[in-house]
Amino acid sequence: METLEGKNIVITGGTGGLGFAIAERLITSGANVVLADLPGADGAGALAALPQDPAQDKGRAIFVAMDVSDADDVERAAAEAEARLGPIDGVVANAGIAPPTDAFDYDAQSWRRTMGVNVDGVFFTAQSFAKRMKAAGRPGSIVMISSIAGFRVVKPERHAAYGTSKAAVAHLASLLGVEWAPHGIRVNALAPGYTATQILKKAQESDPEMMANWLSQVPIARLLEPAEIANGVAFLLSDLASGVTATTLSVDGGYRPA
Q1: Torsion of the alpha carbons at 163, 169, 172 and 177, rounded to the nearest 10
Q2: For residue 228, how far is the Cα from the chain centroid?
Q3: What CA–CA distances, in Å, run from 156 to 61, 99, 213, 233?
Q4: Sequence ranges of the domains in the chain
Q5: From the centroid of its chain, how far is CA 30?
Q6: Tens of pLDDT, residues 141-167
Q7: Which of 54, 116, 150, 244 keeps 20 to 30 A from 164, CA to CA?
Q8: Residues 6+ apart with CB under 8 A from 177
Q9: 142 - beta bridge partners?
Q10: 208-255 confidence digits (pLDDT tens)
């Protein structure tokens, strides 16, 4: 993705899982990245694990603490990111949570926390950085991480709040992609399928029968690799996708629920 070289890109939830895989992909494409995550995240460890070259003026990374569910904290972190790295060209709104709970048993706090991170946090992040892009007259690209759970009922799972939030994220990307198009700001969503993160690897160990059921619904008959999701994100951020906005790219191995 040569068009990413030298661009400054923020990744929320950037220190682990998909966020870290996306950071690796962008770094190797010559982008500078901001790993934005909760204050308790291992920012130093994540930075040390990235393939940075201190001798280069590109492919650099910094860590910025950010609670995406707090609009004021997002504003503070956005200002810090720009002060340390320069104007931001792209954003990956990746931070999210997925507490499994029977819908009969959801308490108000758990439901609101999921929505606060997965929906409010995505909007606050996009809004804060898009305002800066608009004020500077700079084009930009925002990628919101949705999920196959936002488009189809995945089973057997107990993630009513998560699925609802990810459906909202995909529609939000369409709404903002249209509204902000006149300002040169593209907004898209990416919907990953079952991906070989630590969470799913643990699920495979604890319930191999459930995992076999999941994989039977994936035509490529395997879990996706985090790098494959990262490739899709890199495409949407890059100039190769200059005509793509207000849409959702599915990277799901052809997932078709039974």
Answers
A1: -140
A2: 13
A3: 38, 14, 9, 28
A4: 2-194+225-251
A5: 19
A6: 999 999 999 998 887 778 899 999 999
A7: 244
A8: 186, 187, 188, 245, 246, 247
A9: 91, 187
A10: 887 888 889 999 999 999 999 999 999 999 999 999 999 999 999 999
| 8 Å CB contact between 181 and 246 | yes
For residue 137, the number of C-alpha atoms closer than 13 Å in the C-beta half-sphere is: 0
Question: CATH second-level architecture of 2-194+225-251?
Answer: 3-Layer(aba) Sandwich (3.40)
**Residue 232, C-beta contacts closer than 8 angstroms, at least 6 positions apart:** 190, 249, 251
pLDDT reading at 1 higher than 70: no
- Tokens at 250, concatenated: 């599915």
Q: Tokens representing 212?
A: 């076999």
Return the structure tokens found at 43. 């920012």
The mean predicted confidence, pLDDT, of the chain is: 94
Nearest to 185 by CA among 144, 143, 141: 141
The residues annotated as belonging to the active site are: 162
3-state secondary structure 105-145: HCCHHHHHHHHHHHHHHHHHHHHHHHHHHHHHCCCEEEEEE
